[in-house]
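Shape matters. Shown next:

___
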Amino acid sequence: MDAQALLDILSYKRQILEQFLTVSSIFGGFAVTGVIALRTDTNRDRVHTLAFGAMAVAAISFIFATALDAIWLPVSHMDKYKTAKATTIQTLLDTGEGVVWSVLIGAISLVIAIGLLGFSRSRSMGFFVLLITLFAISAYILHIRALFVSP
């Protein structure tokens, strides 16, 4: 791909990752709050342990995404990329993928933790939360898929 096409992709990706910075910061706060709440809880059963682990993975993923995005965005605005070679721009674009994957891992971990916490209340509540979680994930996948299907 030529450098001008990559610069157009860079501009588009910059707009997306500016939004991801806010999303990962907010979700990271939720995940850290969940880790703290589960850490102070007196229950030490298997469900709470798994939920704590999922929340910890989510928190670390969102913190990583926020930190990488906070570095990536100013670098992507540097003037030197306007005249850079295609391989240099491609490297910058590839580095931005780390933010996207980290947010996805964090979101999946957060959904898993929320799904597990339903079972800490009761079996019926657990299945209810699991059903709602599966519905939300299915709706998300269908909407994302619809964005990439050509008319």
User: Anything to note?
Assistant: The radius of gyration is 19 Å.
